[in-house]
């Protein structure tokens, strides 16, 4: 049975004169992003990553036939995730093991077992599609302290298995810069740590993620039956570019090396300053903060300085279906539409924010009746009253930056920088349907 929590309600506000706010025309463009070739055969790449290397003893090869193997799968919208998970499971079956899936997403899904299954299902990870059971629980095993009052926790079902395989995407974290950010170690310490493990890391803020998270991971790796990591790196086009099999003893090293690879090819909005940004979709499957903070230049940890791009106003339009109402990230927008606000799952949002100790992302911005009025309001407060001078940009999401809509000043800048690949459509007014929803064709 699907979890049902009350959603908020808001009045329909008719703000005098707002509907008369003019909007600029936009060009649809394709821009240059760093290039890292996509894998052409994902299944073969996984096979190579999971190769037992005949004659070489590994934790995976040491398992006996019939061994129960927990496969840790998280809540992010990783490219080709169903294909990756299914192939890993099939290979484990070929090795005559008995695999099962463990949701590994900290406090996501409202911090309850059923909610975490629902998150996986929305990402295409179902028992039927994967051919393996999903065993979900929030119960953990305490593996001991890494320092006074800082404990390492791990999902009990994973701990009691004969082996654990971790599937993780290695990428930059939204909140901080370090040698180890999001990847294998974070999946071990936070993802498999469930709500308790996530809380133990996040309650310390920057220190928890930068210093304690890798140490908690090392503690877990030494105490629990980890046998393999399958580390994924995406290119700037949200395509899988690297799949690496990592032995548990090498998780820390691999996280550092693969993070450097990702950062060298990470996508970005190619402007230092914007007057207005419209983000069509935010969601947990896009970024842990709904909209990647490093992409939109908003606050990471409390007190952190803003980073480029410097954006005067941000409008967020919709929460992805895969997020199941978890609209964390709306707090980094300046306006959201009524339809989106009325479908927010505040329980998931507040639980997620309380666990991560970052409350700014769930503060609700002004709610206006339609997407069109939200965009008009964003223009009204963007500090550029001359419509033909507005530095405006529309993106599908912070993980989809190959094509975008830009106003004339930004088009000129792209051409001057040599980053414009193609003008896909000449300047046109933004299009809206009868309900005032943006129709962008991105």
How would you sum up this structure, described in words?
It is a single chain. The two termini are 35 Å apart. The longest helix has 18 residues, at 206-223. The model has no long low-confidence stretch (mean pLDDT 92). The chain folds into 2 domains: 18-33 and 268-439, no CATH class; 42-264, Rossmann fold, CATH 3.40.50.11440. Strand 9, helix 10 and strand 10 form a beta-alpha-beta unit. The strands form 5 sheets. It has a 6-stranded mixed β-sheet, sandwiched between helices. A 5-stranded mixed β-sheet has the order 3-2-6-7-8, with helices on both faces. A two-stranded antiparallel ribbon has the order 4-5. It has helices at residues 42-49, 81-94, 113-122, 127-130, 156-159, 184-191, 194-202, 206-223, 251-264, 293-296, 338-341, 346-356, 371-380, 408-417, and strands spanning 25-31, 68-73, 98-103, 140-147, 150-155, 163-169, 226-234, 240-246, 273-282, 310-319, 336-337, 367-368, 392-395, 403-406, 420-429, 431-432, 438-439. It contains 14 helices and 17 strands. By secondary structure, it is of the alpha/beta class.
**What is the 3D form?**
globular
Helical stretch tally: 14
CATH topology call of the largest domain: Rossmann fold
Using only C-alpha atoms, the radius of gyration works out to: 22 Å
Q: What is the strand content?
A: 15-25%
Largest sheet: 6 strands, mixed
How much helix is in the residues? 25-40%
Distance between the termini: 35 Å
What's the pLDDT, averaged over the residues? 92
CATH class division of the largest domain: Alpha Beta
Spans of at least 5 consecutive residues whose pLDDT stays below 50 are none
Tally of structural domains: 2
CATH architectural designation of the largest domain = 3-Layer(aba) Sandwich
CATH evolutionary superfamily of the largest domain: LarA, N-terminal domain
Structural class: alpha/beta
Strand order of the largest sheet: 10-9-13-14-1-15
Number of strands: 17
